[in-house]
Structure formats: C-alpha cells, structure tokens
Amino acid sequence: MTKFSTIAAGALWGLLTASTASAHYVYSILIVDGQQTPDWQYIRQNSNNIQPHKEFLVGPSNDFRCNAGSQNSAHNTEVATIGPGTRLGFKLWNNGQILHPGPMTIHMSRAPGDVRDYDGSGDWFKVYEDIICGPQYPLRDTDWCSWDQAVVEFTVPHSTPPGQYLVRVEHIALHGAESGDTEFYFTCAQVEVTGNGNGNPGPLVQIPGLYDPNDPALRFFIYGAQAYPYNQVGAHTVWSG
C-alpha cells in the first residue's frame, strides 16, 4: 500500500468512528517493554472499526477470534519479536478509555507456521485476566479493574515455547448483559516469541468455544448486585508458566 493510500485509509477510518469514539473502543497499539508502537503496526486491523461484537450469545462465528475482517489485514501487519518475560501491553486507539463495566482477558495461540497465515483455529490459552478491584458491595462501574483504563499489560511467561503467536486482548462490557446485549471488544497482535521455553500452556480452549453462552456471568444484572457469579472469566484458568 502506498503512503498516500495508507493516510487516506486512516483518515476515513477516523471519520467513520469519530461519532461513537466516546462510547466504543478498540485496541490498536502494541506496547513492548514500555515502548509504544504505531497504530496497527503489529495488531490486525478489523473492518467493523470500534463497534462491539454482540453476536456471541446467539452463535459466534470465526470472527470471534480476531474480529471481523482481521484476516484480510494479516499480511499487512508486522510481527513483533519478543523474548520470554517481555512486558507486553495493548493501548486503545485515539487515546480512548474503557468506560464500560466488565472483565478483561488476554489469550495466546501458537501458529503452526507463519502467523500472518494463521486464522486462529488452533488452541488458545489464557495469560491474563482482571475482574473486580473495588469493594463490590454493591458493584459500581468504578469497581472493575479495567474501568477508565487505556492500557492493559501482562508479562509473557518465561517458559512460553518459542514460535509465532496470535495474542488476543478482549474486554467484555456487561452494562447490557441482563438482556443478552453483552458487548465484546477484541483484537489480535502478531508476535514471535524467542528463547528456549519448554512450558506446557493450558488449559487449552477453542475460539469460538471459550465461553458458555449460558454462563450467568455474561448475562447478569450488574447494577446493585450483592454477589458476583464467578471469580474468573470462562471455565479455564490463567496459565502463568
């Protein structure tokens, strides 16, 4: 793509999303050991901009892996080389902040070869999650760890086997969950992990399939809740290596 067409595409993308930027969001910036990279350099750009996925509870498609249209941008997206123990982060596009209540997760999936060709149909394992950091009796929006945050970071486990990976960041917005209007915001970065890690990541899940559509945690009424229906996101735990 030429420099002119890249700039034009970016400007159009901004115009399409400006009207809802305060309510919706998307992770477009990868942070490697504190250093921010340009928008979409290492993260596959999706085609539905900052709009959430709401199809999950009625039957998710393969777009639930890295978002709609992301496979089309995979070969225009670079692969970040990182070592085990790297502090990896994601930042929201356009200086956005999360202003929806809900949990956060990050998953990784090892590609069988070139990650730019990989559609995410293999196994995934969870490397990070945050849920509630506040008093929670009753729950307030500000009790969620991700509330008002622009960046989420985790440490790549030291025993992560070398290879190329998709790294999927996801925030789940629960303000409409009671009526089944749960919102999912997610994108995937492309990375290559170096070193000689020999860990055995798990539990392993498939996407779609990592969440039970009937999980009350994805459907409950959060406002005024006196009890929280789960202490992790999904049935699978975080792998720390």
Automatic annotation (TrEMBL):
Q: Where is it found, in Gene Ontology cellular component terms?
A: extracellular region
Gene Ontology biological-process entries: cellulose catabolic process
Q: Which family does it belong to?
A: Belongs to the polysaccharide monooxygenase AA9 family.
In terms of Pfam families, this protein maps to:
AA9 (PF03443)
**Which CDD domains does UniProt cross-reference here?**
LPMO_AA9
Name of the protein: lytic cellulose monooxygenase (C4-dehydrogenating)
Subcellular location field = Secreted
